[in-house]
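>> Question from a student workshop board

For tomorrow's exercise we were told to take the sequence and the ligand below, predict the bound structure, and bring the output to class. My setup keeps failing. Could a helper post the expected result so I can at least see what it should look like? The ligand is coenzyme A.
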Amino acid sequence: MDLLIRRARPSDKRDVLSAVRTVWGGQDRIPDVFDGWVTHRTGPFFVAESGGRLVGMGKLTVTSRTEAWLEGGRVAPRWRRRGVATALIAHRIAYARDRGFRVLRFSTASDNTPIHRAAKHFGFKRIGVLSRRAAAAKPGASTLRASGVQARAVVRRVGPLLQLGHGWEWREITSRDVRSAIARSRVLVSDKAVGAAAVLGDPYDGTLMVAAVGGRPGPLADLLRALRSEASRRGLADVSLFVSSSHERQAARSAGYRRPWSGEVYLFEKRFRVL
Ligand SMILES: CC(C)(COP(=O)(O)OP(=O)(O)OC[C@H]1O[C@@H](n2cnc3c(N)ncnc32)[C@H](O)[C@@H]1OP(=O)(O)O)[C@@H](O)C(=O)NCCC(=O)NCCS
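>> Workshop helper replied:
Here is what the output should look like for this input. Compare the format with yours to find the bug.
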């Protein structure tokens, strides 16, 4: 199949929207993000053409100086299973490698078989299985804010990844992220010894978003309860976070969190060798 991969242009909008019209029952986010993505400001947005028709797309988002993120992989229904998604991934891997990124990551649903196969094909490693948890706000004791001297302990507890925004996007957390979150009162801890810690993101749609969380089982369960009272104090409806290990799942359960969605998010990573 002859394929041309090039940067998207504003004039591609109609074809892009038509290619994704049926994706996720018409609920795809591409129509909402197209205008921003086509500026290429956060990283290149590519489209694939065959015989002059737009058949697929894929974005590479720059998440830090050394990390890049793949998202927005879509192939028009009639053009699937012919290697278009694979070609778009190969193109972005080459792009990331050529520009000296150290690591490339992406996330996908646990049931997205084509993407798992493509990940394997290109030597991505599955580095996380994340599952969402949510709990209603509930009045309770006030929470403990972290102070600057606790920054290193917080990074150790919540690392290695930080969720960006409210989507399925992560990058490495740095001590600078934590210090600036502490300065904005966005880091909560279970106790002075930092048995558990949470970094808050921007609230989204009435929800307290937790961008990174972790800790020992007991303190973590206490902190997750405290997050529900934090949401209540801020007038938010609930708390949302991702758990990634059995002790985190158990802490969430004991703090009254439930699973709003039965699927899981797989996080894949490919590291490039520095020459
Ligand atoms: C996922 C999607 C991008 C795949 O595009 P595609 O061009 O059909 O994928 P490819 O032809 O490159 O196939 C990739 C691999 O998946 C396999 N595959 C493709 N469709 C499949 C299906 N429906 N079931 C099982 N395997 C499938 C291919 O055989 C290939 O595996 P291989 O390399 O081991 O042979 C496309 O189905 C799509 O747009 N889906 C809706 C949006 C979506 O899920 N995007 C990804 C979000 S992370």
